[in-house]
Design brief:
Layout lengths: L1 H24 L8 H31 L3 E2 L7 E8 L2 E7 L6 E5 L1 E5 L4 E7 L4 E4 L7 E3 L5 E5 L5 E7 L11 E7 L1 H12 L8 H12 L30 E2 L4 E2 L2 H14 L13 H12 L3
Parallel strand pairs: 2-6, 5-11
Antiparallel strand pairs: 1-9, 2-3, 3-4, 6-9, 7-8, 7-10, 10-11, 12-13
Helix pairs in contact: 4-6, 5-6
Bound molecules: dinuclear copper ion.
The site of dinuclear copper ion has 9 residues, from loops.
């Protein structure tokens, strides 16, 4: 679809430039009569854009019709997405157990099934934009916006906040992964399970650090730590995610260390302090614990 729209725009641009060249290089001996001038203005300025833009609009509407819409249909899987400064909270309900699944900055979809997003914001206006799935939808405080999508092929798509929302607007990315339905069902079931208590020695030590530093004042780890007022992303299966900090860093042990120890250098303004008072051994242990939450 993008290709057709780009070609259309390029053709119009080429025509206009062609006419410009003709006008500049081949000045007619006689000035145009008023009637011919009016015909050019009406034809080129009103009629032509009206026809071309209507045709492109109709084309875009027809092509994107079955893909994205705003109406939720019965039987759609519903995914709640809440924008925060500067990350995405994502909620599912696991159909078999009815358990709520909360994660962050990552949305997984079953290929071929329609999914209805309920989009809202916890603070300022953000905009949900996954170009390969649908157009932008603004998230306005106090409202829930519906967006219905269906991924037709497996793949990984990048989403991005598309409305300036403050300092780290640029680092407010979202990963959307469309996967075969049975694989998706297994993933959702795994995400609905509570976290397993750590078994290795460094991970046990990391759990202690997590508790001592009161990480659970903001971050829940279902089964191990309930969160306080719950300001930060749920970390129950954080080790299974693809990225850290809303797409800021790929998920890796050394990035977890850097994130916790020095988040204010990695993503200045993020609503989490740098835990730079922790020594390297404690940070390593904490990162092992988080990495094992899969
Ligand atoms: Cu959220 Cu820009």
């Amino acid at each position: 679809m993008t290709v057709v729209l780009v070609i259309g725009a390029a053709l119009v641009f080429a025509c206009v430039m062609g006419l410009l060249v003709v006008v500049v290089w081949r000045r007619p001996a006689q000035p145009l009569t008023r009637r011919r001038a009016a015909a050019w203005v009406l034809g080129g300025g009103v009629l032509f854009p009206a026809v071309v833009l209507s045709a492109l609009l109709a084309y875009a509407a027809v092509r994107s019709g079955p893909l994205a819409g705003t109406q939720r249909a019965r039987g759609d899987m519903v995914v709640g997405i809440t924008a925060h400064m500067w990350w995405w909270e994502v909620r599912y309900r696991e159909p078999a157990s009815g358990r709520e699944v909360v994660l962050a900055n990552e949305v997984r979809l079953p290929v071929g099934r329609a999914v209805s997003f309920g989009l809202s914001t916890a603070d300022v206006i953000h905009s949900f934009w996954v170009p390969q799935l649908a157009g932008k939808v603004d998230m306005v405080p106090g409202r829930v916006h519906q967006l219905r999508v269906r991924a037709d092929a497996a793949g990984s798509f990048r989403g991005q906040c598309a409305e300036y929302c403050g300092e780290q607007h640029a680092r407010m990315a979202l990963q959307v992964v469309a996967m075969p339905p049975d694989e998706f069902d297994r993933w959702l079931l795994a995400q609905s399970q509570p976290a397993q208590p750590p078994t290795s020695e460094p991970a046990r030590r990391g759990r202690q650090v997590f508790e001592q530093q009161r990480c659970n004042a903001c971050h829940a780890v279902r089964g191990l730590f309930e969160a306080g007022p719950g300001q930060g992303p749920d970390l129950t299966h954080v080790g299974s995610r693809l990225a850290l900090g809303a797409g800021t860093l790929p998920m890796r042990h050394e990035h977890l260390v850097r994130w916790v120890g020095n988040v204010q250098a990695v993503k200045p303004g993020a609503r989490m302090p740098s835990f730079d008072r922790l020594d390297r051994e404690s940070l390593d242990a904490l990162a092992v614990f988080l990495g094992e939450l899969r």
